[in-house]
Amino acid sequence: MQKSIYLPAVAGFALCATGALADTPVLQVMTYDSFVSEWGPGPAIKAAFEETCGCELQFIGTGDGAALLARLQLEGPRTEADIVLGLDTNLIAAARETGLFAPHGVTADLDLPIAWDDPDFLPFDWGYFAFVGNAGAEAPTSLRALADSDIQIVIQDPRSSTPGLGLLMWVKTAYPDTAADLWADLADNIVTVTPGWSEAYGLFLGGEADAVLSYTTSPAYHLIAEDDDTKVAWAFDEGHYMQVEVAAKVATTDQPELAAQFLEFMVSDAFQSIIPETNWMYPAVVPADGLPAGFETLITPETALLLSPEDAAAIRDEALDEWRNALSQ
After folding, report:
1. CB 259, CB 27: distance < 8 Å
2. Best CA proximity match to 146, nearest among 209, 102, 196, 86
3. In the beta sheet, which residues pair with residue 190?
4. Helix, strand and coil percent figures for the chain, each rounded to 5
């Protein structure tokens, strides 16, 4: 008798628990793989947001940054994502053309080196692209000097990776009339082209190349997390191309209030304080405690290069053709 009474009680408890879980709203954020990795910002941001939202935050990892746009264009209004996080200024124009994004409605005092007033795309971090090499090794002082050297580098594919696309914009902005020639000279420096940043950086750390396309902030990781000062970003005379990473609300979301709450949270101290030592970029809003010790050692480019979203979209195909033609020789 006791056993027959106990079993329905357990079953009833299970039904109640299932019902409670079903009532918990879920917010899905599509982003790049390194963001959701165990060493990226994702886990800490998930924990911090769920403390305040009464919801479950789910991340959808999708390759590198440029792959986000490709997936979104493929899925269209059928996408399950409520937020897309990880596009940048080079992709904003194409993302806007999809018609899939709604205004973010967030007012924030952003700590960016440029003015920002986009109604749909909200920055969460920013940085400068750079080649990262080993301290004490040969260090070119320009893209041209790199192309004229025997230094071996790893870069990312501009069709799937925002750093890869950023390098295309960097070359095209610094050498608008001779970009094809520069790529032709850079071709024999390139060991391989990877789909995303993580693969490329891993090859560099594994000794497969002398340097890797990354960020001026990348040495901060080694210095702060590993107490290793042997990785350096090279300062280039032409200047460095800037990246501003953004998030946006998907217009077809079935959680509009929760999506809006997440975007407000994204520019708060709770989110922004996580960025420097997990995504290893500059936060869009400097936390109350400032930047971590070690960030003051990073190079600051004398010239910042950045195209508007519209200008970047206008030259993308030409820049991609120049890159593809040079590497196919």
Report:
1. yes
2. 209
3. 153
4. 45, 20, 35
3-state secondary structure of 30: strand
Amino acid at 262: F
19-33, 80-94, 100-114 — which is least confidently predicted?
A: 19-33
Burial category of 77 from C-beta neighbours within 10 Å (exposed 0-12, middle 13-18, buried 19 and up): exposed
Q: Which two tokens stand for residue 138?
A: 């040969």
Whole-number pLDDT of residue 132: 98
323, amino acid identity: W
Residue 58 CA to residue 134 CA, distance in Å, equals 37
Which pTM value belongs to this model?
A: 0.90
Give residue-wise pLDDT tens across range 3-50: 233 334 444 444 444 444 458 999 999 999 999 999 999 999 999 999
Q: Residue-wise over 99-133: b if at least 16 C-beta within 10 A, else e?
A: ebbbebebebebeeeeeeebebbbbbbbbbbbbbb
Summarize the confidence of residues 175-193 as an average pLDDT: 97
DSSP string, 62-95: -SSHHHHHHHHHHHGGG---SEEEEEEHHHHHHH
Q: Is the dihedral of CA 220, 223, 225, 228 positive or negative?
A: positive
* Residue 159 DSSP one-character state: T
Interatomic CA distance for residues 232 and 218, integer angstroms: 8
Angle between helices 65-75 and 89-97 (to 10 degrees): 0
